[in-house]
Amino acid sequence: MAVHGHQVVSKHPAAFDWCEGGLRMSVDIRDEALTAAALAEYATIPIFFMVDRVLEVRLVDGGLGGMSLTETAVHDPYAKDYDADEVGGPTHWPERFDTSNWGLICARRDGTRVGGAVIAWNTPGLRMLGGRDDVAVLWDIRVATGQRGTGIGSALFQAAADWAGARRCRWLKIETQNVNAAACRLYHKMGCTLGAIDRFAYPEAPGEVRLLWWKALESPPD
């Protein structure tokens, strides 16, 4: 299949090509075992981003008339790093949660990891799952700074959705914030529906609004 600009296209379920600066590049996307070593390598991919636009939440008639989300520019952009906000980051997930049923999707270019996604499923006590076995959570998704905007994020998201669907999940659930406008645009593009807006979810970050996205999945046929 032909590629143009930075559009990623699939040749088969695990390989993606794109062109950049006249050079053809290939990315391999596949499942890997979620081991301590794999998470340590995964953690080397930065997840920080610049907050230069936010989705501003406005209430209509105190909320009785609904809510609106408007993307607006930030006057003083700032950096946000989820790994810095979270104790320990990816390498400490197995200490905090039972990750035996979690999935790891990796994107590699010429053998170098350039992105990845982690999916949580069938994990007792994980509040995001709500005790349901038909829901998987896109726990983490990240792309190396120099590879963003090439379509790797979309390919990782689809691979994560396929992973969840293969386990007969009906939904993929994703948490993000109104300060991550780029992620929200990705989830919307990938067919997610905004299921919840919580303006008071983060007392330690009162300027951030919790957004929960839901992606309906198709389970494989019997």
Describe this structure in words.
There is one protein chain. The chain has 222 residues and is α+β, with helices and mostly antiparallel strands. The protein has one domain (28-216): 3-Layer(aba) Sandwich (Aminopeptidase), CATH 3.40.630.30. The chain contains 5 helices and 11 strands, in the order E-E-E-H-E-E-H-H-E-E-E-H-E-H-E-E. A 9-stranded mixed beta sheet has the order 1-2-3-6-7-8-9-11-10, sandwiched between helices. Strands 4-5 form a two-stranded antiparallel sheet. The chain is globular.
Features:
alpha+beta; nine-stranded mixed β-sheet; two-stranded antiparallel ribbon; 5 helices; 18% helix; disordered N terminus
Determine and state the CATH class.
Answer: Alpha Beta
Strand content bin: 35-45%
Q: What is the makeup of the main sheet?
A: 9 strands, mixed
Query: With helices defined by DSSP (H or I, 4 residues minimum), what is the helix count?
Result: 5
Share of residues in helices: 10-25%
**Count of the separate structural domains:** 1
Structural class: alpha+beta
- Ends distance: 30 Å
The CATH superfamily is known as Gcn5-related N-acetyltransferase (GNAT)
Total strand segments: 11
| Spatial shape | globular
Which whole number gives the mean pLDDT? 89
